[in-house]
Amino acid sequence: MIDQQTRTAHNGFRMRLCNSGSGQNECPGWLGWGSVASTVSGCLQQMWDEGPGDFYGPPPHGHYLNMSSTRFTRVACGYFTSGGATTAVQNFQ
After folding, report:
1. How far apart are CA 46 and CA 20, in angstroms?
2. Which of 24, 45, 62, 75 is the most exposed, having the fewest neighbouring CB atoms within 10 Å of its CB?
3. Which residues pair with 75 in a beta bridge?
4. Domain-by-domain residue ranges, the chain?
């Protein structure tokens, strides 16, 4: 919620509002994700499509690397929808 309200990706993660997790992917609602379904089928698919490569790139592959990493064994997913925009975060631990 805080990220969508401040329009700042990973803001809550940096502020340690959720004090667990070593990695985070985020689909910012202000970039046009309108529903949970479109976020999952669109944004998460785009992250997966980054494929393997260097975390920071060019081009960056960090989202894919978080999703495919064997060092992470758990993931927490959260969604916040307001004003027709959905922000989704995935915290990896």
Report:
1. 25
2. 45
3. 92
4. 2-92
3 state DSSP class of 44: helix
Average pLDDT, the chain: 90
State the DSSP code for 34. -
Ranges of H-type helices in the chain: 2-6, 11-14, 36-38, 44-49, 62-68
Two tokens, residue 9? 């990706």
Strands 75-82 and 23-27: unpaired
Residue 76 phi/psi, 5-degree rounding, is: -115, 135
DSSP letter (8 states) at residue 42: I
Predicted model pTM: 0.84
Q: What amino acid occupies position 70?
A: T
Give the Cα separation of 39 and 22 in Å (integer). Answer: 22
